[in-house]
Predict the 3D structure of the following.
Amino acid sequence: MDKVLLGRTGLSVSVAGLGCGGHSRLGMAYGHDETQAAEIVSAALDLGINFIDTARAYGTESAVGRAIRGRRSELVLSTKCQVGRGEEMISGPELVSSVELSLQRLGTDYIDVFNLHGVRPSEYNHSAEELVPVLQKLRAEGKIRFLGITEMFGADTNHDMFQKALIDDYFDVVMVGFNLLNPSARNRVFPHTIQHNVATQIMFAVRRALSQPEAVGALIAELVDSGEVDAGVLDPADPLGFITAYEGVDSVVDAAYRFCRHEPGATVVLTGTGNVAHLQQNVQSILAPPLPPALQAQLASIFGRVTSVSGN
C-alpha cells in the first residue's frame, strides 16, 4: 500500500481510505449487520488501508469500533459530527457530548481527526465562532488530535464554504468533493490546501453517475443545457465510452479513482463498499498509475468548466 503524509499532521496514511458512509455504509444500508460491517473494516486493514473515515450520521461507528479492537495503533481514525439540524445548529455542549459518544462507540481514548460534518456556507460562521473553540479545547485535553471540516458537496458543488474556511486556516484536514465530472476543486480548493499543507480527504470520486451507466446520460444532458459541457463532444448513447478506448484503462470506475489519486492536492481517496472483492478492486485502481496524458487532457477539455453537479 502506498503511503503519504496527512498534510501538516505528520501522520503517515494509506493513499486509499475506507469511507464508512456513502450509499453502502459498509453494507449496512443493504441489510448487513454490525458483525458483517466490521468484517469489511478488518479486510481493509488487512489490505494495508490505515485511514478509516466514519461519522455519527453514518451509523457505522460501533462497527468500526468492533473491527479496530486490539488494532487501534495500526490506523488513523476520522469521524464527524453534523453541525446543522434543519434550521438549528448544534451548540458547544452538544458537540462535546457528540465527541464523547463517538469515543465510546469507537472504543478509543482519542480520535485522530474530528470533523465538523457537512458544513454549508450559511453554517460556517457558527462553526468557526462557536464550535472551533470547543474542538480546540478537546484537542488540548487529548480527546482529539487534529481538526477537520467537510463540505456538503451535493448542495455546494462550487466549494463556496471552503472559500471562508481555508482562509481562516483552523483545519488540518478537509474533506472535499472531487471527480472527473466536476474537477472544480482543482482551482477552488487545492491551491490553498497545497500552500498551507492542509490534507484532503477526497469524497465523491465515484458516485452514481460514474458507477451506473444509466445515470450518466441525464447528467450529461443537464451539463449541456447549462453550457458547462459543449454539445456534440460526447456520444449521447455512451457519453463516457471514450474513456475506456484508451489502452490500460479498464473501466470508467477505474479511471475515476486514478483521476483523483494522482491529482496534485489529493491526499487520501476514499472508497466505500459492503463487499470485500469490490474493495479490493477499488484499491487496485487507486494504486494504479496515472491516466494517460491524452485522456487527462481530454477530460479537462470536456469537464473543466463544470461546477454545478456532484456526480451523485
